Amino acid sequence: RKEVEQDPGPFNVPEGATVAFNCTYSNSASQSFFWYRQDCRKEPKLLMSVYSSGNEDGRFTAQLNRASQYISLLIRDSKLSDSATYLCAVRGDGGATNKLIFGTGTLLAVQP
Amino acid sequence: NAGVTQTPKFRILKIGQSMTLQCTQDMNHNYMYWYRQDPGMGLKLIYYSVGAGITDKGEVPNGYNVSRSTTEDFPLRLELAAPSQTSVYFCASSSRQGRDYNEQFFGPGTRLTVL
Question: When you count CB atoms within 10 A of the terminal residue's CB, does the N or C end of chain B come out lower?
C-alpha cells in the first residue's frame, strides 16, 4: 500500500460546482497534513495546511479524519482558475526534518 | 527577494554524462530538499539538508549526490546519467519556528532528459 494515495482524476466539473478530493495515508503516526496546488509545468505551492478541527480559507475547506486516516479538500463555487493538480502531503518523521510524502495528485479541470 | 532559484531550466544529457543542478535560496532557510517528479506522479524526495554541512538521503537517492557548504546553496549532482533519471527536479526550502515548521517553498524546477 502506498504511504499517501489520491484519486488521480481528472475531475471535470462545470463552473460553480462543488468538488471534493480525498487523500488517504497509511502511517497512523503522521502528524501534519497539507494541500498543495500545482499548475501545469509549474512548481507546487502551498494551498493550505490541514488542522485537526478542520479549517476554511474562502471557498476552500480542508478536513482531517484521523480514525479513517484521510484528509479532504472541498472547493465550493469552482472557478476556471481553480483548474490545476492538487497534491496532498503528509509529514510523519517525528518532526525532525520536515520531510513530506506527497500523493500523486488529483487533476481538476473546471469547464466554462 | 527571489525565493528559491534553480538552474538550468532545461537540459538534455547523453547516457553516462554528468551534471550539477544548482539551487539557491535567499530566505536564510536551514532546511533544503531535492525532489523529482515523474509524469503523473507525486514528488519523491531524493536528498535533504537540515543545515550547512549536514545532508541525508531521502526516498530515492541512488544515482545522485549532494553537498551543502553554505546555507544558501544546495547543488544536486548526477554522476552517470541514465534514462531513468529523466524527470523534473524541484528544489525546496523551509524554516522552523520553535517546534513548528513553516511551509516548503519550491523553485521553478529543472526539466532533465537523458537520451
Answer: N
